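Team,

Forwarding the record for the chain on the shared tracking sheet. I've put the sequence and predicted structure together so nobody has to dig through attachments.
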Amino acid sequence: MQYRGLTPIGSALIELRGHVSGAYWPWIGGLAPAEITQARANAFLLGSILQTRTKADLAWENVARFLEAKGGPDDVWAVIRSLQDWELDPDFAKLHRYPQARMRVHRTALRMVEWDDDARRL
């Protein structure tokens, strides 16, 4: 089913979230597509990116801590791009134990400009 205002990928994710046994969808679970804000979609994408070689629960907790430390921004990608020295930022360093994972997040932040920093547009 194609949801109005969502890309085919977004629509597929919305469909899947109710059918994956035991799935936990922080920031977007249980919401209608129209209720998913830019901030929620971006937080979910950030957490999804960080689930490499780490437990999902830890990735979600790390994103929540990072967002809180940065004031709960709607546009987390702009915040990450604005870090003067992102590799040394203590809050950014706590996102993941591996530098490669943090580099992947930074590269994603640079690319999100193409989608107006809104994960709902992917």
